[in-house]
Recover the amino acids of this structure.
């Protein structure tokens, strides 16, 4: 899946979450979130789903 890196960053910032906070809420590593926000990786469906849940949004919102 292709993550919209700027949208992911905007959503995280709008919630006021640090990388560490989102990582904890999503049960993924900080490095994974950094890689997604900087477009170094696309991520897989499971990881993107966890991050979406941590942001209280849906996968479609992150991938649009």
């Amino acid at each position: 899946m292709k993550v919209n890196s700027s949208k992911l960053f905007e959503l995280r910032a709008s919630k006021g979450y640090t990388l560490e906070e989102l990582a904890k809420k999503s049960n993924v590593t900080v490095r994974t979130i950094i890689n997604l926000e900087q477009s170094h990786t696309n991520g897989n469906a499971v990881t993107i789903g966890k991050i979406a849940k941590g942001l209280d949004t849906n996968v479609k919102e992150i991938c649009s």
The two ends are 11 Å apart (CA to CA).
